[in-house]
Amino acid sequence: MQLSLITALALLVLTAVGFLAGRSRALALAEKDGSRLHSLPGYHGYYVALWAGLPGFAVLAAYALAGTMIVNTIVLDRMERAAEPLQARYELALANDDIWSEAEREIARLDDEMAALRGEAEQVIAAEGVQSDAVEALRARQDELQFAQDDARFTRDARANTIAGDIIQAVPEAGDHALARAGFEFARLPVQEREVFLADARALAFGDGLASRDTPELRATAGALQPVHSAIAWGACLGALGLALAGLAFARTHLAVRFRARNRVEWVISATLALASLIAILTTLGIVFSLLFESLRFFAAIDWRVADFLFGTQWSPQTAIRPGQIGQSGSFGAVPLFAGTALITLIAMMVAAPVGLFAAIYLSEYADSRVRAWAKPALEILAGVPTVVYGFFALLTVGPLLRDFALFLGYEDAVTQSALSAGLVMGVMIIPFVSSLSDDVINAVPQSLRDGAYAMGATKSETIRHVVFPAALPGIVGALLLAVSRAVGETMIVVMAAGQAANLTANPLESVTTITVQIVTLLTGDQEFNSPKTLSAFALGLVLFVLTLILNIIALRVVQSYREKYD
Amino acid sequence: MADSAAPAHTAKTVYHSVANTHPVKVAASGVEVFYADKQALHGINLDIQDRSVTAFIGPSGCGKSTFLRCINRMNDTIDTARVAGSIRIDDEEINDRAVDPVLLRARVGMVFQKPNPFPKSIYDNVAYGPRIHGLASGKDELDAIVETSLKKAGLWDEVADRLDQPGNSLSGGQQQRLVIARAIAVNPEVILMDEPCSALDPIATARIEELIDELRENYCLIIVTHSMAQAARVSQMTAFFHLGHLVEYGPTEEIFTNPRDRRTQDYITGRFG
Ligand SMILES: Nc1ncnc2c1ncn2[C@@H]1O[C@H](COP(=O)(O)OP(=O)(O)O)[C@@H](O)[C@H]1O
Ligand SMILES: [Mg+2]
Description:
The complex is a heterodimer.
Chain A: H1 2-33, H2 41-82, H3 84-96, H4 98-128, H5 133-169, H6 175-188, H7 191-206, H8 216-254, H9 261-301, H10 306-311, H11 335-366, H12 369-384, H13 387-408, H14 419-444, H15 447-455, H16 460-489, H17 492-497, H18 515-523, H19 532-566
Helix pairs in contact in A: 1-2, 1-8, 2-6, 2-8, 2-9, 3-5, 3-6, 4-5, 6-8, 7-8, 9-19, 11-14, 11-16, 12-14, 13-14, 14-16, 15-16, 16-19, 18-19
Chain B: E1 14-15, E2 24-35, E3 38-49, E4 53-57, H1 64-71, E5 81-89, E6 92-93, H2 101-107, E7 108-111, H3 122-133, H4 139-152, H5 156-159, H6 172-184, E8 190-194, H7 202-215, E9 220-224, H8 228-234, E10 237-242, E11 245-251, H9 252-257, H10 262-268
Parallel strand pairs in B: 1-11, 4-9, 4-10, 7-8, 8-9
Antiparallel strand pairs in B: 2-3, 2-5, 5-6, 10-11
Helix pairs in contact in B: 3-4, 3-6, 4-6, 6-7
Bound molecules: adenosine-5'-diphosphate and magnesium ion (MG).
InterPro entries (chain A): MetI-like, MetI-like_sf, Phosphate_PstC, PstC_N
Organism (chain A): Glycocaulis albus
Membrane topology (chain A): Multi-pass membrane protein
């Protein structure tokens, strides 16, 4: 760490030296030659500085990104090779062990039996439905088999542990043997504990962080890590400095009176800008692909019943604990979430569309410039209120108010967390969005159209209704679609105010849940990362992404075609 | 600007003598217009004859459009604009508070520089005025108005079979004639045109000029133009404006062949503007 810091400072110094060297050389050249430089001396300076700085920093950056990984890979590979004889001995011992072999066979047998049971269950379900007694019996039988299998697994793993322990005991602790023991132990660790092992070893080796354990194996690994690490670190740093010096010297020889340093620097600047946008695009692509990839894993986990996911009406991801559990299909039916999202969005738009639109019309057509000067910023402040504030406003004020009002009107089942309160507050949140977009669109309607209507003897409101509004309509539709996609993706308000119950209802006074709320609940708290339950969040995210993407594309198309017409 | 200090009615406009073949339709006297604090017109006195074409010429920014917009009180739609003085149409004072500008604009139609058909069908564009003013008592009557208006504007033959298509699907010249038909449809007495051909090609311009000449039979036409050739071709009377003043007014022929004010001479011979 310190080494690379010093190197970075040295590189900075070299860059500065490069600038000065380039500039003074350019000046000297011009003097000697007596003619004008193609580029100002400063550009020659920048050119040399770039050659001195860029390659060195690139090497340093590569080291910062990949250094740890390279060191780990080298050391782990070494450990694996050292552990090869132990591993072979272990596998032989397992194969010769009766208890272990017996348990392994039992597990396989139970697997077959359960597969057969599932086949039978499918037929019974097809014939008698999920609710029948026969299915109940089969389900009980499955649980029994599962229990037996878990037992066998336990026996097998315990036996394997004993055998492994025996083998390790037989190896001395010192020297190269320690590395073999470490490799053997590491290979037997479950994936998530390997991370911990490595972290501990690194902590012991470099003191970055605190080791949770201190064993001879960890010490051995740490011992192996240290030399590899310093070799690579020194290599990278010296390489970077060497490259910087070489670049400086190389670039200096380039300089000449006719040399187009200005154009070269220009090229580097445009490349840097392109790189920045490339990073943005690649990040987006990365997110989309990881979403897609995890969604595919989810669909695989539910046996590709994509239609059940998209059109099923039962959402209870908590119940499907084991994959392949009988009679549990349909737990991932996302229709209640889509319906909840649609209901809240509809309520929000019923608030935001008229209010936002009328506000925009008032501001752009009626308000005089003094009113406009403070009303427009005031509306935009509304857009700056954090959504979490809207959230507790919905939960603590609007929700109870609506509930009491519904109770007062005699609706007995009123609850605080309702689609209505979330929708209303979300509508308020979107008002400035709708009004400022519509305002832009209305202002883009050419004044000549208004003049035309006035000159025909139309009144102000006639002009607005007959001419301005129709002319602005496509743009307004676009604005509303953008607002819808905002509402669909909004999370905080609904998490706080709409409740969690996956009710399939059109009653705005009931609790509903939305796609975003479910994603939050599925991914927060202690979660197993490979269960279909967790993975379903990604599928929901994908649906949300596709939905808002389509809305945005349509909206932008509409707005754009409208712009073209009047520019 | 020493001029602006002088009283409005002493502005030294040169008036040529006019053979009064037609009655006066629009009579302006002492018209002044201010945009906020800036005076755009100084004491304009001008009588405009019915059933003829009067052209306003002058360098840009001299107040031609401003004066034109006084005649249908379009300046009312500009917050900062203030109009003083008197304008009478058929001896009725239009700057009177009692006059409803909305009704006035039905009597005084206007055509703009850039064709501005409404985002509606060709039919609905022409039917717009009659509809909002309740001029037709049924579909048949409305159809008839649309047809005669389009015919008067010389557009009927080109659009008769596609009246339901959007107005802005037409070419620029056709759009301008559509806008003229739209203005005619409410049966106005005066038609104002603010540089109606400046966005059009020569062929479309010639069509519009022909049309203006035909419309002269029935309407009082006032046209702002930056093309002196156009003024000479279509108008009977010409008014030359300069820096917010009416400099010279008289029969077009005389203004062009025998201008009396030096500024008019300079402008006509192309020395400025
Ligand atoms: N809406 C307005 N607000 C302020 N000043 C204006 C406005 N319209 C025109 N003016 C000013 O009034 C003067 C006359 O303008 P205008 O009547 O448009 O001239 P013309 O049509 O002869 O070119 C110009 O100096 C112009 O800048
Ligand atoms: Mg003008």
